[in-house]
């Protein structure tokens, strides 16, 4: 019986662990007679998955007249498209909304819905329509219309699930939930939403007296409190901000859960997907510094059973300065997700809406390699094929090119060949790669509460702006950037979930002067029970709402200090004149100094290391990033002080080296994010790899090197500095195709008795070295009897 499961961090299809490698093809933007050619292009690129939205606005132009069979336009025959996907041997990921965005008018919601039923539109606090005219997600009338749409579209989708012999293996619930509120900095004050907020408060506090006590208000009823809140009453206490934003996490989860119930009632049984927005454009650049805001909004939705949280990754130009955006987006998404969920990107950049800024094949190559190196086990390129907006559904006109690997005429663009090479590799080794886990040296904390800034009222702006500045410059582009660039590999820990010293020996936690009391308590316990905590760049003295709270400082006896803002210079572990953006000045502390600042012949401590209980705490009271390359030496020295050492290194400081391993089987990812060629030795624990052979990586390129990789009985790739794009084996025979990255590479094979090869001569002591290989070549091995 066909099956689709999510378990042990992998997609398991018909009992086989599967790396999903897919591309977005919008059937509603491609002529029906051209569907087959586009699907063949996707399959030839090594993909096993095709994804598409199913836009409600296009299929139900007039209320009650739903066309999913091609009655009004041939391209609307959804079943025909899904049948063709099955015929081509591809899986399908369907995304039927209700919202789809996708540069479609009204974000994919039928225009008649908001025009005929204006009461469903979200409202500002003053009662006017929300600036984006997003609907109030849980409005009963909206859900009634969605229920009817789901019932109709699922009549087509449900029989086409893989579990029933069709191609559909994944089903997305809505799209980028909460994004429109974030980008407009506007919540929804629709009366239905406020009623839900009132129910939430009653459940949480029980009495209005308890609610008033919490927030310093004097309402005589819950409804009075809600009305006062809507009007902006109450002081500037951040308790109101956090109350409202935490409610929205619950609200988003309940909305998504409702959609899931609708789908299950209609017979949908494959895993569900919740996609997360957050990469943001800054002029001609894109960054992931705000991606965690989307994770914070949807972190409760991650707990929905059978739902997979999937990120939308749009970094733009991928280079040395911003590759850590992808690292952090990957590990943060994994941290928030349930343990059994694989790391998946539902929208994985292979193009961009506009033709400027320009993307290049190297961008597609590096985003893919980076995220796979850091644990990704499924991805869906967006967009993979271009198209055309029919019936005036496009916001930006008729054309929808998106710099896609396949253009609107069905012709490959340069990045298509890049995708095809990656697809061939993953088709060859993907089922083994999904079992390999990233080798990590430490863990970093991800606190979703640090990103409860999706919507901020003006009265709360000063504190939230300070938090946003510090989390970006001192954490994201600060310590976490340095760890990434120094090849100190890490996973992330969701600090809202339980964690222990046994599971997490070392932990880096960003802090301002404000931290939730429960988290302070758990961090103190973590250290006292044997954990090693690196706390930076401040020590909390208040809770999130501004009330005095020194649980962590008092439990670990962290001394007395003050924050010295602004640029400064300190000495760190014998390294002089280290530029920092802020520091602490300790008047009293116990421990070994780590960072010192000299002022008027007086040495002031800015960071120190001490034992506490059964563990250790390193108070790293300096704000530092990679403004200068010498700061990489600083972070390595600080990490070593708590026993953290990267196991991989190179002669050049600008290469990234990450390993995924399954037992002795190793996948070594080496990336050159710079604009110049890199020639270097690689080292593991200080010992040269590949028998001392140097590797050469072209500008902005990467490689996946195999080590200890069995290809047949008694036939093992000891190491390869070429990439394998095809491999097959039968009893007594094996063949593989390899391709060099850069100038050339070598292959070393461990061969049992009787094995021979068509290239390279006879093995010496059971080892055969083949190379230099400077062009794609197919190697054949056979066993003589």
From TrEMBL:
Every GLMA-like second domain range: 464-593
GO biological process: carbohydrate metabolic process
Pfam families per the UniProt record, alphabetical: GLMA_2nd (PF22369), Glyco_hydro_35 (PF01301)
One Gene Ontology MF term: hydrolase activity, hydrolyzing O-glycosyl compounds
Superkingdom in the source lineage: Bacteria
Residue stretches making up the Glycoside hydrolase 35 catalytic domain: 11-199
Family, per entry: Belongs to the glycosyl hydrolase 35 family.
Designated name of the protein: Beta-galactosidase
Organism: Planifilum fimeticola
């Amino acid at each position: 019986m066909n099956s689709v499961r999510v378990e042990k961090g992998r997609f398991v299809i018909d009992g086989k662990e599967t790396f999903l490698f897919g591309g977005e093809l919008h059937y509603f933007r491609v002529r029906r007679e051209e569907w087959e050619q586009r699907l063949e292009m996707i399959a030839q690129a090594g993909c096993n998955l095709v994804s598409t939205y199913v836009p409600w606005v296009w299929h139900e132009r007039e209320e009650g007249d739903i066309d999913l069979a091609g009655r009004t336009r041939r391209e609307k025959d959804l079943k025909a498209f899904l049948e063709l996907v099955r015929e081509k041997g591809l899986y399908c990921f369907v995304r039927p909304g209700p919202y789809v965005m996708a540069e479609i008018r009204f974000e994919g919601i039928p225009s008649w819905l908001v025009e005929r039923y204006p009461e469903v539109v979200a409202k500002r606090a003053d009662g006017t329509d929300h600036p984006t005219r997003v609907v109030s997600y849980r409005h009963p009338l909206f859900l009634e219309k969605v229920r009817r749409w789901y019932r109709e579209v699922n009549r087509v989708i449900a029989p086409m699930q893989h579990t029933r012999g069709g191609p559909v293996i994944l089903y997305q619930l809505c799209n980028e939930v909460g994004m429109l509120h974030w980008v407009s900095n506007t919540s929804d004050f629709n009366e239905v939403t406020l009623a839900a907020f009132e129910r939430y408060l009653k459940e949480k506090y029980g009495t209005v007296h308890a609610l008033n006590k919490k927030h310093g208000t004097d309402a005589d009823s819950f409804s009075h409190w809600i009305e006062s809140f809507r009007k902006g009453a109450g002081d500037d206490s951040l308790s109101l901000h956090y109350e409202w934003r935490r409610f929205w996490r619950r609200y988003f989860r309940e909305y998504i859960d409702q959609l899931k119930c609708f789908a299950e009632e209609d017979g949908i049984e494959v895993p569900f997907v919740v996609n997360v927005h957050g990469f943001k454009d800054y002029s001609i650049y894109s960054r992931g510094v705000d991606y965690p805001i989307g994770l914070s909004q949807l972190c409760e939705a991650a707990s929905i059973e059978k739902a997979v949280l999937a990120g939308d990754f749009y970094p733009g130009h991928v280079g040395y300065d911003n590759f850590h955006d992808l690292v952090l987006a990957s590990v943060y998404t994994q941290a928030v997700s349930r343990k059994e969920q694989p790391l998946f990107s539902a929208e994985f950049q292979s193009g961009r809406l506009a033709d400027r800024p320009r993307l290049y094949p190297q961008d597609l190559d590096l985003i893919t390699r980076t995220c796979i190196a850091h644990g990704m086990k499924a991805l869906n390129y967006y967009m993979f094929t271009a198209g055309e907006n029919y019936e005036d559904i496009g916001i930006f006109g008729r054309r929808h090119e998106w710099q896609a690997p396949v253009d609107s005429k069905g012709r490959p663009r340069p990045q298509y060949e890049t995708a095809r090479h990656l697809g061939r590799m993953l088709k060859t080794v993907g089922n083994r790669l999904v079992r390999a886990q990233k080798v990590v040296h430490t863990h970093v904390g991800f606190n979703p509460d640090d990103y409860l800034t999706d919507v901020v009222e003006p009265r709360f702006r000063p504190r939230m702006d300070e938090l946003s500045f510090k989390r970006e410059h001192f954490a994201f582009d600060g310590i976490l950037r340095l760890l990434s660039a120094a090849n100190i590999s890490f996973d992330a820990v969701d600090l809202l979930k339980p964690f222990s010293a046994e599971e997490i020996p070392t932990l880096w936690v960003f802090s301002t002067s404000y931290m939730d009391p429960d988290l302070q308590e758990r961090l103190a316990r973590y250290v006292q029970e044997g954990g090693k905590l690196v706390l930076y760049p401040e020590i909390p003295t208040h809770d999130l709402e501004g009330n005095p709270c020194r649980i962590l400082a008092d439990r670990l006896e962290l001394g007395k200090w003050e924050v010295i803002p602004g640029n400064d210079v300190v000495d760190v572990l014998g390294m002089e004149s280290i530029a920092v953006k802020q520091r602490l000045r300790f008047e009293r502390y116990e421990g070994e100094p780590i960072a010192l600042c000299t002022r008027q012949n007086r040495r002031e401590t800015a960071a120190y290391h001490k034992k506490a209980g059964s563990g250790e705490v390193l108070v790293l009271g300096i704000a530092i990033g990679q403004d200068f390359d010498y700061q990489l030496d600083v972070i390595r020295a600080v990490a070593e002080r708590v026993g953290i050492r990267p196991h991989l290194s190179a002669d050049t400081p600008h290469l990234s080296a990450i390993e995924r391993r399954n037992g002795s089987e190793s996948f070594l990812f080496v990336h050159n994010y710079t604009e110049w060629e890199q020639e270097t030795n690689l080292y593991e624990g200080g010992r040269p790899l590949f028998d001392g052979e140097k590797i050469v990586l072209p500008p902005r390129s990467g490689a996946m090197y195999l080590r200890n990789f069995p290809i047949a009985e008694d036939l093992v790739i000891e190491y390869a500095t070429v990439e394998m794009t095809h491999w097959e084996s039968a009893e007594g025979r094996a063949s593989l195709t390899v391709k060099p990255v850069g100038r050339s590479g070598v292959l070393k094979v461990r061969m049992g008795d009787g094995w021979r090869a068509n290239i390279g001569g006879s093995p010496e002591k059971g080892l055969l070295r083949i190379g230099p290989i400077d062009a794609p070549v197919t190697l054949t091995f056979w066993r003589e009897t």
